[in-house]
Amino acid sequence: MWKNYFTVAWRNLLKNKLYSLVNIAGLATGMAVAMIIGLWIYDEVSANRQFKNYNELYQVMMHQTFDESRGTQQAVPFPIGDELKAKFPDFKAVAMCDWGSERSLVYGEKKINRSGHFIGEEAVGMFSLKILEGDRNPLHDPYSIVLTEETARVLFGNENPIGKAIKLDNSTMLKVTAVVEKQPKNSSLSFDYLVPFQLQELIYSWVRQFHKTNWGNNSWEAYVQLNDNVTADAVNRKVKDVVISHFTDENTLKHIKPEILLHPMSKWRLYSDFDNGINTGGFIKYVRMFGILGFIVLLIACINFMNLSTARSEKRAKEVGVRKAVGSGRKQLISQFLGESLLISGIAFLLALLIVFVSLPYFNRLTDKDMSLQVASPLFWLVMLAFTALTGLLAGSYPAFYLSSFNPVRVLKGHLQAGKSSSLPRKILVVVQFASSIVLMIGTIVVNRQIQYGKNQPIGFNNKGLISVYWSDDIAKNRDVIENELLRTDAVISVTQSNSPPSEIYSNNNGWEWKGSTPVEKASIFSTITTTYDYTKTLGIKLIAGRDFGRDFADSNGVILNQAAVKRMRLKNPVGEVLKWNNKPMVVLGVIPDIQMESPYRPISPLTIIFSKGWVGCLDIRINPNMPVSKAISLIKPIFDKYNPAYPFEYHFADEEYAKKFNYEELVGNLAGIVAVLAIFISCLGLFGLASFTAEQRVKEIGVRKVLGASVFNLWQLLSKDFVLLVLISCTIASPIAWYYMTQWLKTYPNKTTIGVGVFAAVALVAMLITLITVSFQAVKAAMANPVKSLRTE
To answer: What is the predicted pLDDT for the residue at 419?
Structure first.
């Protein structure tokens, strides 16, 4: 029986080549989209699963209240690690960690910059890092270093790296104690090297002097592993007051109220957002969104199958009648038609697999991932088999039940009438199909409008032709010489030093007081930039009032404010006002506009710019605009090679770094755009097939109308109007749905674009044009056919 079903199904496919091609192509495209999105979702939800202690690892985070709003941060004080180890037996392991940075690694004549961390020695066991060779406890010696296999190969080639000496930052000799496997791209712990956390105290005097016992500075991260049979809730209650217990001042106790919490590894990647101290989600919203999009595209493809199968019901009606007349039951017919859909689904799956294989490298570049088809895994094929079967059953369910319901007596007497009632389900499915596609089109446009809105926001300074070179001990020792030599070249017109590059703000501080400020306002957070001379000149910031820091003045107690800070402090004539910062008098020297250095979708925060030669971390260099950038770089590079010889000359363009702030939004926009285009493509395949069938079904009617004088335009209009009406209904249904969901999405952005009527009108127009183009080919072909051929049998 099943052999007979397969034979009939295969003959039907070969007999109706156009119908088969449209069905298989549409279903394969939908399956390919669903598979790629499924791989992406799996990569996201499986992040950090490679760690054996996945369910026991937590990050120590902290709530604090500023401006009467509860904020949550990953940054914690330096001494918290020792306190958690000493006083709380609930922890199996505790590891402090810095934020990570690029540092110079030198071996012989080879020098490279790589990213890594100062991290506690227990981290190797906590994170179950796979040690390929070397010591099992490789960070116990404070002067040790752990390398990834890739970094070791770059530095040592085929040499055995264990025991070799590497110079870190051209100042500290470290011994390679282990080589570990590189972490996957979706890991929260990413590094090229690791060095012991305690090394900071030994080589940096500022750590010993300002941070070792400082509970008020939050500049580190902390990770813990819980003991067995210990719950996070119970430990949270014990440790929540660890930080506040070290403060006695009323402002911290009453207003800031720092409170520790443990954030589980299972939520690090997808649930990282907090609002007023409550975990509100995070990147999971995009995972859910694209999961829904993948399902919608697959559903659109399945609707194609349903529509084309039921549209051709008259072609199969006599077959159903004969089978029922000779004894086939409805269950057997349902099995037959479901078997046909499973066959088509299987063929479509093979084509989808080819599409995924070809497109996956591009998709990996787009999303910065390293995904692959796990074709060697039996589980992969089991999942794919289930996916193909479910798709086939979903696509074939309605046609199977519809075709098997025909009355054999009426069918064999020729009384089967495919009237309005029989076409109504198809029309509903077309409306659902196009409404889904239109929602995707509107969503894509809104996402891209939001991206452009952010890009078009004024940033308040000129980030073109501005580069930053990050600090090193050699640059620190030679800073003045480097500045002077840079300025003597024609390549540079201005140089300044700052604690953060122009595309970022690394520091935020409270403790500011002004005339009329309250104790609550003393807890207000102000962004902080520390700099030397010529900061506004180098960045191209135009002062609104006052002046920049000057070499002819003693400006160590000076401060420059942005407009948001002036507004926050309610200063009417800010220049010359005396403020206090942690009880130190500070004089307002100048006011600058609100410069955008952080997210363009967030309100610009109040900013204080303070003069400091000790608290800086990079050189900001303004390149001569009248010189080609490549030539300017060629003149700048020898200066850094001379005074910073242990480091490869690396620089960062401010405009390129700023552009990276749009990465997530652009990723969402690109993915949504691709999905929308493919959804429209699949819908058009379905329309093309339906238009072809409609023209075939009405061929005699068209012949009669043409003989009676109907023009090609009249016939084109006759065949197209039904499809145009369905698309208009789809637009009417889709527009309010898209408006609601995109309005909700935009609410997550304080600074956002608007959704105008023009968006919906443009999408409706595009949908109409696509429909007319798709249908017109078959409509015009049918209208121009010779009526003699269609009527000669009459």
So the answer is: 47
